[in-house]
Amino acid sequence: MSKNILITGANGQLGNEMRLLGTNSSDNYIYTDIAELDITNLDDIRSIVSAKKVDIIVNCAAYTNVDKAEDDIETAELINNRAVENLALAAKEFGAVLIHISTDYVFNGEGCIPLTENLPIDPLGVYGRTKSYGEKSIEATNCNYIIIRTSWLYSEFGGNFVKTMLHLTAERDLLNVVFDQVGTPTYARDLAGVVVNIVENDKYIGNNGVYHYSNEGVCSWYDFAHEIADLGGNRCDIQPCHSDQFPSKVKRPHYSVLDKTKIKQTFELSIPYWKESLKICIQNLKK
Length: 287
Ligand SMILES: NC(=O)c1ccc[n+]([C@@H]2O[C@H](COP(=O)([O-])OP(=O)(O)OC[C@H]3O[C@@H](n4cnc5c(N)ncnc54)[C@H](OP(=O)(O)O)[C@@H]3O)[C@@H](O)[C@H]2O)c1
Hints:
It is built from 10 helices and 12 strands. Strand 4, helix 5 and strand 5 form a beta-alpha-beta unit. The chain has one domain: Rossmann fold (3-Layer(aba) Sandwich), CATH 3.40.50.720. The strands form 4 sheets. It has a 6-stranded parallel β-sheet with strand order 2-1-3-4-5-10, sandwiched between helices. The chain has a two-stranded parallel sheet with strand order 6-9. A two-stranded parallel sheet has the order 7-12. The longest helix is centred in the N-terminal third of the chain and has 22 residues. The chain is 41% helix and 17% strand. The protein is an alpha/beta fold. The protein is globular. The structure holds NADP nicotinamide-adenine-dinucleotide phosphate. The site of NADP nicotinamide-adenine-dinucleotide phosphate has 26 residues, from helix 1, helix 4 and strand 4.
């Protein structure tokens, strides 16, 4: 039977990728962003979930500006925690499943071994802290949920590191990029594909919990920038530098490689290598 799937934050990077993948689905996708559904308003969520008989809510909405969050704690808390609790309460009330996206920034990044889901969280800044509260709020409502923590998200849509680096490496002869922050990029289309796979095949049933997802492999932002420039055909001298060369209010995790064993085993996924996915994204951007 076809399902009704509510997408929130559908104008963002992940939301737009969900729009693309949902187009040919036999399920009924309802795309909303803040103009159609402000997730800080519980009554509005209740109305749409009830009226559209929503089976699954996929929350792509968030406050994602990591630097700005340090000065705008209230808004970050409202969108990344209270609004997420609203979605979970509505899911519980109307028997829907909540699929929510979280972040590697819930960890402090002090280790050097890929991060599993059960490790203690210890966010370094407001963004990570409010996202971690959002996770806890979902769990406290006792709704059916899947939380997917991801890292270094990019896509053809919106602003992101890939688009910035394509631009800068085309414009400049020399660029310094940090090599002391290590993680794994995630092509939002791959993550959207995982969500669609879970939804369409009813794989959420009996699988409540937290999962980690990124592309395969490991790199620093320096390596990532190098690959972007190469694939973009840009000749720019990229030099590795330390994070303290770019003073920021926010401390960022040094090591945030996510261990994806659980999501691969539970949902029987194979995950593309980060360079392969980056190639596809850059090819799409060139079209
Ligand atoms: N970007 C990353 O590198 C990264 C890394 C790890 C995890 N994540 C997580 O991945 C998820 C998707 O990220 P993304 O990069 O796709 O985010 P994004 O591009 O910033 O999109 C978020 C969308 O949510 C909308 N939104 C904000 N407040 C809202 C509200 N009250 N009601 C409804 N919609 C609202 C935003 O609208 P406005 O643009 O108008 O505010 C935007 O369209 C998020 O949960 C994020 O925390 C992202």
